[in-house]
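for ur thesis appendix - Nuclear receptor NHR-70. copy paste whatever u need, i formatted it the way the template wanted (i think)
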Amino acid sequence: AGRGEKPPCSICGEVGNGVHFGAEACRACAAFFRRSVALNKLYRCRGDGNCDILSTIRCMCRACRFAKCMAVGMKREAVQKYRDAYGKRGSDVESPGSSSVSLPNQGDGFGPPGGFNPNSTFDSVEECGMPILTMLSQNYEKLQSVRRVVHHDQGSSVFQMRTPKAVSYKEANIVSSKECDLVADWILNSYPGFADLHKDQKIILFRNFFLPFVILQGGHFACIHNRSDVIILASGDYIDCSHPETFYYDPDGRQLMSSEDAVRMFASSFSIYRRNVTDPMLRDNVDSFEFFALCSLVLFDTGLEGQSEECIRVSRRIREAIQREILYHYRNVRHIEDPSMRLANLLSLLPALQRATRRFQEDVEISHVFNVYSVDAKFYEMCNGRF
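the 3d part is after this line
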């Protein structure tokens, strides 16, 4: 380095911040090493153990980043042990030249220590640029595992791969009813600040979210399987859009309207769903993190009836954080040339999702009022945001 220039970080190449724990390091890498040692973190590389660690992608592989910290001379014994595990959080004051940084609250019940604090600045992405989206992704994998148990057929083994089948509306209703508690638990354990909201505010957000989420998730499954002719459910079964009579068929024979008449009245909703949700998501190849971002923006809506000012503030903070995180994803993971345009296209899916949701609600309302086909009370309340 020239006169007056700081030497680069020996781990990621960013502008250094002095010697930390025995090696030249930037603030971000120093903080990463200190937290890793203090919390006794164990990382596993998903590659060959030789990942590039650069300032733009340093959080992509923590195992290789920590290994490089050790390789350049950082010493575990130089870390003040247990400082991060039990010290005061969120209001630490740094002394000049200190290598420590303020950490978020850890006792809020959201994931492992070092979780994201909605009351801290959302610009702080020193250790990882996508803390909320990453937590959503990790917990969604757990949700998928739980689904395999909850939705398995009676008499079958949960250890055997089940064969997907086309379902009727009654079977789809049962799946959605089971999903309610599972999705609520996923939300509760994935979003910083959600658990701290008053119970009535959680209900307001969730009842506005659940049906759009079910519809949006169908588009997500369509992208995974590259299918637009079926609507894949959380159970793995599907609605056959090419043969809607199978969906409106009542095996118990209690339906007042024939399946053929129901098709004539309601089947156009499938094309509306496909035009507004499935086709746009397939066309743009919406990935999992974009799906989680859309879920977040739908959940933390504002201007809802009965929504408190505190809930609005939390919702706005999380929405802003999610948009920053997805931009980080575009720039540093997918390396998209025009991240802002990609984000704009993603946000344009939300009005289309609302159109599909309203149409579905209208169908359920008509079927309920005119007793076209039986819909159980819980499913009816759930679809209309009243449960």
